[in-house]
Design a protein that fits this description.
By secondary structure, this protein is of the alpha+beta class. Helix content is 37%, strand content 20%. It has one domain (19-158): Nonspecific Lipid-transfer Protein, Chain A, CATH 3.30.1050. A hairpin with an 8-residue loop joins β1 and β2 (75-82). α3 packs antiparallel against α7. The protein is globular, with a radius of gyration of 17 Å. The termini are far apart. Mean pLDDT is 90; it is low at 1-17.
Length: 167
Amino acid sequence: MRMISFFLATAGLVSLSAQAAPLMSAEWATQACQSWNGNPVLTDELAEKWIKNDKGRGYKVMHMYRTDCGEAGKVEMTISAKNGKAICTYAGKVQHSELDLASDYLMHAETKRWKEMGAGEYGPMRAMMFGRLKFEGPKGEAMRVMGPFEQFLLIPGKVPGDDSCPK
């Protein structure tokens, strides 16, 4: 049986690996959440001050989407204060429809730009300065955490995602 699967896969008739989910889809966001939690720069450095600006809720919300796919493809990551760390506790379809932009974030960029940022071609400062990343939220706070924010922008380069628009 293995030999048949190998020959079919080699011939391109059967794929042995799973297809990547669309970039910024709910499925992709779940994997991005795991990537966040595996990055000590995000979990540790953002726990110092950033996560504490949560309006007393115990979490911050980030909405993001691909501009060329439209707001209907928006996903959410919820980051919570847990055991002295900033941990991604949810990622997927939007659960918090209303953001408090004094503590929460909304980000969007064209697919091409998400991929460039994910590849480390440029960081958050350049992305925002040249309008490649549209951003709403506490700007002063974001400026103070540029290092960890850059790690966040690398996630699209670490979590595979295809170019089809999320549904």
